[in-house]
Amino acid sequence: AGWFRQLLRKPKPSLVESSLNTSRSASSSPSSSSSSAESSGFSPGTSLARSVRPSPVSALDISASGSARWAKSYDVCICHSEVDLELVEELVSYLEGQPESFRCFLQLRDAAPGSAVVTELCDAVQNSHCWVMLITPGFLCDPWCKYQMHQALAEAPMANGRTIPVLKDVDRKDYPKELRNLYYIYMALKENSFRQIRDTVMRYLQELCRSSTSRTE
Fold first, then answer.
1. Cβ atoms of 81 and 107 closer than 8 Å
2. Where is the sequence biased in composition, kind Low complexity (predicted)?
């Protein structure tokens, strides 16, 4: 009888224990971001690239004098169709307005008048650290966009973070086969996509500066 009364008087789990159990169960459940990615039609875990989530970028002075950043004329080359010029101008304005003042090559603004298109496209690729491919229906129909994409892949086929595919209004089946080994940014919310592009460029430039510094030490 004594042990039965002690069992009845056993205290209930504390609020702390309950909150810990709740947090454990929440952490083991699938994230809402993965569910939204699957519902968008671009599900992760396939042989195709998938949307990347923006992540915080650690602080590193990429603007210091002598930085490897200044070895090229531009930080970013935007490869796009002329029909997407308005969106691209917004992206360029966003990147150039960042504290790092990213240097962007915009063909209709920065190409030298009278120069050959092929020359300008090749020079833009060679003189830029990163290449943003704004893949839209217009991009897929523009032979010059495809030419510049192939030039970028030939310039640095295995360089992580240099070629940045950005998909907008493009079905999965139409995604260029040449880029299917690369993760892409799927543009749903423009502000989020712009931030992802900025973070990707920043991450590459920081890694470039770290590698350059370690080689000189």
1. no
2. 17-47
